[in-house]
Amino acid sequence: MEELFPQKLTLKEANEFQDKLAARLILEDDLNDSIEKIGAATMHTRGDFITISAAIFKTDSDLKKFEIIDKNIVREKSPFPAVPGLESFRDGEILTRILRGFSKPDLFFIEGHGVNHPHKLGLASHVGLALDLPTIAVSRDFIAGRIQTVDGKDAIVENGEARGAILKSGTLKIYVSPGHRISWQTAFELAKKCTKSIYPEPLKIVQQNMIEAINSAVKT
């Protein structure tokens, strides 16, 4: 199996590796016409440990109802410290391994960045390549590009290329970007459809599962 998460790289080598993988991303719609199962994953880092909460949901044709059909919460020690811009080398390998344990959904929502990243390879893009599945990145953080109106949307633009869009809920801004095998327009529309308030429901649910698991661990 190709090594997509090499650990022993200098910063320059890691950036070059990111550029190489980014060139392989498919940023056009390459997903099923009918979406029946959606995956979601979020993670929390504290010290040397990473907690990952993920689930697969059965959904309806309107993407409004989400029934958990499989879930997992895992806490593991990180193999090495986080380096800004290279988080996917640390977190991505663990996340990919966890997500491979599920049956394949039609797409994954991953909390983090996609191509809206300085080297166009955030966590959702890196993991999307590893899984060879459509992935959508959703984040509260803005790390690259500038905001420009494209197709009537507040788009994230870098080097003249739209790399995502802003999903607004009141004063809150959520940054949505394609990870792999999906266009930025479709990534935005699917995230919007799945959002009842503030955040896409699948991600809200896995976040809540993680909070409950962490609180339970603290109490015991």
Gist of the model:
The protein has 220 residues and is an alpha+beta fold. It has helices at 11-22, 87-99, 123-131, 184-193, 201-219, and strands at 37-46, 49-59, 66-77, 107-111, 135-139, 146-150, 153-158, 161-169, 172-180, 195-197, 199-200. Strand 2 (49-59) and strand 3 (66-77) form a beta hairpin.
Strand content: 35-45%
Helix content: 25-40%
- Per DSSP E runs of 2 or more residues, the count of β-strands stands at 11
- What's the CATH architecture name? 2-Layer Sandwich
The largest beta-sheet arranges its strands as 3-2-1-4-5-9-8-7-6
Strand count, sense and closure of the main sheet?
A: 9 strands, mixed
Taking all Cα atoms into account, the compactness measure Rg is 16 Å
First-to-last CA distance: 40 Å
Query: How many discrete domains?
Result: 1
Q: What is the CATH first-level class name?
A: Alpha Beta
Mean pLDDT: 92
How would you describe the shape? Answer: globular
GO molecular function, one term: RNA endonuclease activity producing 5'-phosphomonoesters, hydrolytic mechanism
Main location: cytoplasm
Subcellular location: Cytoplasm
Protein name: Endonuclease V
Write up what this structure looks like:
With 220 residues, the protein is an alpha+beta fold. The chain has one domain (28-219): archaeoglobus fulgidus dsm 4304 fold, CATH 3.30.2170. Helix content is 29%, strand content 35%. It has five helices and eleven strands. The strands form two sheets. The protein has a nine-stranded mixed β-sheet, sandwiched between helices. Strands 10-11 form a two-stranded antiparallel sheet. A hairpin with a 6-residue loop joins strand 2 and strand 3 (66-77). The relative contact order is 0.18. The mean pLDDT is 92.
